[in-house]
Each structure stands twice: as structure tokens, then as C-alpha cells.
Specification:
This protein has 349 residues and is mainly α. The protein is 70% helix and 1% strand.
Length: 349
């Protein structure tokens, strides 16, 4: 088990000899594409051993890889810290219990309707139970982020303390706010990029591929927003109510709304009239994620790298439930490092 806090590892000096078995930080890799990909994966895993400061803001490539490392850092903390692992497994075990009960309840119905009977009743029932269990598990995978929102908030606060970023209080949202944000996010992901994807889909030959890519980008964008939101915690003298009041006084206009509202050409602006109304609805739905939208827009390379890591861990239905706590830890660490960076920049100025 880890000590109460993990101290950030000291960065090697440029004068130190290279350590065998580890890649140097963000060194360019030459060779085939496969060798570069393998070296990049090894580098990300090596650098995810513990918390480390952010690379310079003007080094987009290093910040991208830093973002990729964060989910791996979250997984390593879970594997090393039995206390955090216990908290991470609680939602998984609860959902697994519900799935087992549902599969056992439906077993008799499945067995009676099974035209594919294997001749052995015990084997047939086992196969039917496994199929029903994993089908239910995959179907319920999106539910825990809502049911266990407060549990994940406590994990995020504890993770910051474990990572040496100082004690924090959990950001415990009211139940009504969690319900509203869950519904809003589902609507935004499903239809938020519909005008763009519809236009791209009618383009001959490459249109469907472009539309799929655009929707994938949109979904990844909101998966990053959700992860950042799950990693949120409260600093000294902060409360959920005070943060909400501050956001209402200083609302953030998201990038897609600025893109549409920024069109000044009269004819084009007139054609975009229906799109403007649609965007205003989307802007209202995403109003609760102002801080997270600012983070993504301010540091695109870092957010893109983190998004790649998020997509890799959450792409498999059902299995993604096992990795979600690692993303909570990763987002808590990333938010903490960004706050430290802002504090150092403010002191320097």
C-alpha cells in the first residue's frame, strides 16, 4: 500500500547518464511507424510512474503525450493503493450483483426459448446465464456515472491527497443537478453535432466517413469534459453553491457557439439562422460545464492527448466500467497540475 501521499519524482538532470530500460522524456523516435508507435506506448507507460509537473505550455507535443499518460497514471495508482482499489471496485461489484440477479431471474425464460439447446441442460443454462449477465452488464455500463457521482467525487478528492497535491473536499453535487447534467449530456452527444454531420453525410464518396469522424470527435470531446468534471474537487473556502453562483455570474460561451455567432457575412448569417437557434439550445444545455470547457479550449494539445487515453479505456462496452475510476484519478491529477501551473504563472507575473 502506498504512503498517505505520493511525492512527485525528481526529473533527471540533463547531465545524468541515460538509465537503461527507460526512454528519455519525449525524445523523437526514428524508424518504422510500428516502431514509433511501440516506442510511444513504452514512453507513455514509463512516464506514468508517478505525478510529475506539466511540460512547458509552448511544447504542444510534450503536453499531448502528458495527456495520454494520465489514464495510465490513474491505473497505476489503483494497482498500488489497496484503499483506492477498494473504492474503485465498489461500483463494479454493485453492478455485477445487479446483473447476476437479472441474469438468474431471466434464466428460465431464456432456457425455454433456446432453440440452440446444447443437449446438456447444465451447459445450456451456464451459457445462457453468461450471455444474459454480460448483455445486462454492457447495457448498464452508462448508469454508474450517475448513480455513483458522489462516490467518484470522494475518490477524486482522496486521489489529489494521495498524489501529493494537497487535501481537498469532494465536489458533492445535488441529486437534481446530477440528473439534469446526465440528461443534458446524453442529448448533447446524440444531437449536438447533428447539423455538421448531416451536411457532411451528403457529400459524395467521403461524406459518410467525414460525418462519422466528426461525430467521433464530438463524442470524444464530451467524454473529456465528463472526465474533467468527475475529477473536480473543492479548495479552501469553496462550496458547490459558491461555484455555481460564480459560473452564473461569469458564463462561458463554448467554442461551437462562438464559431456560429462569429459569422458576420449577411447572406451566410441569414442562412445560418436555424443553426443559431439550435446552437442557443445546446449552449443552454452545456452551461454547467463552463470550467471544463475553458480547460479544453485553453490547452487543446493536452486535452487531445487526454482524450485519446479516455477513448482507449472507455471504448469497450461493459469493460469501461472497470477503468472509469482510473480516469477519475487521472482527471483529478491533471486539474491539480493545471492549478499549480496557473499559480506559478501568477506569481511570476
Amino acid at each position: 500500500m502506498l504512503p498517505r501521499r505520493m511525492e512527485p519524482p525528481a526529473l533527471p538532470s540533463p547531465c545524468d547518464p541515460p538509465v537503461r530500460g527507460r526512454t528519455q522524456r519525449y525524445r523523437a523516435v526514428t524508424g518504422s511507424s510500428w516502431a514509433q508507435l511501440r516506442a510511444a506506448a513504452t514512453r507513455a507507460w514509463d512516464e506514468a510512474q508517478g505525478p510529475s509537473p506539466l511540460p512547458p505550455r509552448d511544447d504542444a507535443r510534450s503536453r499531448f503525450w502528458y495527456g495520454v499518460q494520465q489514464p495510465l497514471l490513474g491505473m497505476r495508482l489503483l494497482l498500488r493503493d489497496t484503499d483506492m482499489m477498494g473504492s474503485a471496485l465498489a461500483p463494479v461489484l454493485f453492478v455485477a450483483l445487479v446483473c447476476a440477479v437479472a441474469a438468474a431471474t431471466s434464466l428460465e425464460v431464456i432456457d425455454r426459448a433456446a432453440w440452440w439447446s446444447l443437449g446438456n441442460t447444465a451447459l445450456t443454462n451456464t451459457v445462457a446465464f453468461i450471455a444474459a449477465f454480460f448483455t445486462t452488464f454492457a447495457a448498464l455500463a452508462p448508469v454508474p456515472p450517475f448513480l455513483f457521482a458522489r462516490h467518484y467525487a470522494r475518490m477524486a478528492a482522496r486521489a489529489r491527497d494521495r498524489l501529493g497535491l494537497g487535501p481537498r473536499e469532494p465536489y458533492l453535487k445535488p441529486i437534481g443537478q446530477s440528473v439534469g447534467e446526465t440528461v443534458a449530456q446524453a442529448a448533447v452527444i446524440a444531437i449536438g453535432f447533428a447539423p455538421v454531420t448531416l451536411v457532411l453525410a451528403i457529400v459524395p464518396i467521403f461524406g459518410p466517413v467525414a460525418a462519422f469522424s466528426a461525430q467521433l470527435f464530438w463524442t470524444m470531446h464530451w467524454m473529456v469534459i465528463e472526465s474533467f468534471d468527475n475529477g473536480r474537487s473543492l479548495g479552501p473556502d469553496e462550496t458547490v453553491a459558491s461555484n455555481l453562483a460564480h459560473e452564473q455570474q461569469h458564463p462561458h460561451t463554448p467554442w461551437f457557439a462562438r464559431a456560429v455567432h462569429g459569422v458576420q457575412q449577411p447572406r451566410l448569417a441569414k442562412l445560418l439562422g436555424p443553426v443559431r437557434m439550435f446552437v442557443e439550445v445546446m449552449e443552454t444545455l452545456v452551461r454547467g460545464w463552463g470550467p471544463e470547457l475553458r480547460m479544453v479550449e485553453r490547452d487543446r494539445a493536452l486535452s487531445l492527448g487526454f482524450g485519446v487515453g479516455v477513448v482507449v479505456l472507455l471504448a469497450i462496452p461493459g469493460i469501461n466500467l472497470l477503468f472509469r475510476p482510473a480516469l477519475v484519478i487521472a482527471a483529478a491529477h491533471l486539474r491539480g497540475q493545471l492549478e499549480l501551473e496557473d499559480q506559478l504563472a501568477a506569481q511570476a507575473s
